[in-house]
Amino acid sequence: MRERLLVLQRLSAFMVTTLMPAVVGLVAMPVIIRGAGAHAWGVQSSVQSAAVLFGVAVGFGWSVTGAAETARLAPVKRPQWFADSLVSRIYLFCLIAPVMVLVMWLINRDYLSLVAVASVAYLVPYVGADWYFVGEARPSRLFRLNALPQTIGLAVSVVAMLATNSIVVTVAVQLASNICAVVLSAAVIVRSSSEPLHFDWSIPRAFGRLKGQRDPFITAGTSALYVASPMLIINLFQPGALALYAMGDKLFKSSLTVFAPVLQVVQGWLPEGGPENLGHRIKQAARLSPLVSIAGAACIFALGPWAARLLSHGEIALGLDISLPFAVVFAAVSVTQVFGLAFLVQLGRTAALAKSTVVGAVIGVPMIIVGAVLFSAHGVAWAVALSEITVLIYQLAVVIAELRRRRATA
User: Fold this and answer.
1) Alpha carbon distance 171, 216 (integer Å)
2) Each residue of 198-232: b (16+ CB within 10 Å) or e?
């Protein structure tokens, strides 16, 4: 009973931490659409989506398995491990940010200022410590040092949009708040270390540490490829449908943010029972988490069109015909997050996690291109749904096979 109460407390804390920025972001959306126009908002959303892909090269695997690895490390070793990752990720950020600005400017030639500021703003969080706090099972730190500064920045950016009617100024405020969150998080981790930390700025050693993150990087890269590619492909081939797809994508990702506390609790809860209870805990989580996914998918399907009209002041008409594939995408992605980032990582099958995302990308990206050219936003949404279902089937098979192997060995 005490253990269940502890899990519920963590879930509640993580929900507050993740939902607060999401709610403020949804409030900001209609203000930005009204002030800047649907297409400019679509460009901003496209850059934000592309940051998922370029951010993989900055986070380089730590954002995928960092929470689970932190949970497995002894508390005294965690701060130095974070410091090493921070140095490597700072170097990567300096390399990747200019590349992202160039790529997004080539796609959106009339929006150089917006693309430049937004690219940096949405890449900065990948240098942060959100995954570290999740691995520590310290939702209070995640809230105070990460979620709160970002939420305040979002709220102030809404005021900036109302005052200036400039989407560039709006995103610049978000950039400042994201930098504050990264600096505050790193400072607290350094101060809380029981031993003096050593920041090794040697470039060869900083990049040498990336070898240990190879499998998570492949996982994150291929996953981000077909997470970010739909918006980029729509931006390239069907710019007129960018706002429509961006709205569906925003509803899906906001729902995924609501689901994030479930994943975060599972990631911290699985290893706490020890290796002897891992299989039992995986089975429990596998029974419960899909129920949350199905409920969320039903909400996206039924309420998506109403939410789109409300958030866009009636400018974007999102019908049930396109809210359905986005609902399927949410159901598949939320379940695969639990199976991949929690189950496969704890089972030591990160290579299988990487393979599953490669399979999804190989199948998904060509279908997304064909869907965009032939069926616009609807075709892209269904292509993403089919690729995510493929990933889910693969991961489910691997988890079942690994549990059976461990049971037979025992």
Assistant:
1) 30
2) eeeeeeeebeebbeebebbbbbbbbbbbbbbbbbb
368 neighbors 383 (Cβ within 8 angstroms): yes
Single pTM value for the model: 0.71
Furthest CA-CA distance within the chain: 66
* DSSP-derived 3-state class of residue 7: helix
Q: State the Cα–Cα distance between residues 192 and 6, nearest whole angstrom.
A: 24
Domain residue extents for the chain: 2-409
What pLDDT does 121 receive?
95
Among 134, 131, 175, 127, residue whose Cα is nearest residue 153: 175
DSSP string covering 66-110? HHHHHHHS-GGGHHHHHHHHHHHHHHHHHHHHHHHHHHHHHH-TT
Q: Under 8 Å CB-to-CB from 265, ≥6 apart: which residues?
A: 7, 10, 11, 14
List % helix, strand, coil for the chain (3-state, nearest 5): 90, 0, 10
Query: pLDDT tens-digit profile of 8-20?
Result: 565 565 566 666 6
Structure tokens at 148: 């709160």
User: What Cα–Cα distance (Å) separates residue 123 from each residue in 45, 59, 94, 166?
Assistant: 13, 9, 10, 21
Q: What is the pLDDT of residue 4?
A: 56
| Number of separate helices (H) and strands (E) present in the chain | 16, 0
Q: How many CA atoms lie within 13 A of 84 on its CB side?
A: 17
Extract the residue ranges of the chain whose pLDDT is less than 70.
1-20, 212, 215, 219, 222-223, 226, 410
Alpha-carbon distance 87 to 84, whole Å?
5
What single DSSP character describes residue 166? -
Exposure of 194 in the CB half-sphere (CA atoms within 13 A): 5
Contact (Cβ atoms closer than 8 angstroms) between residue 363 and residue 331: no
The count of residues in the chain is 410
Question: In this predicted structure, what is the pLDDT of residue 298?
Answer: 95
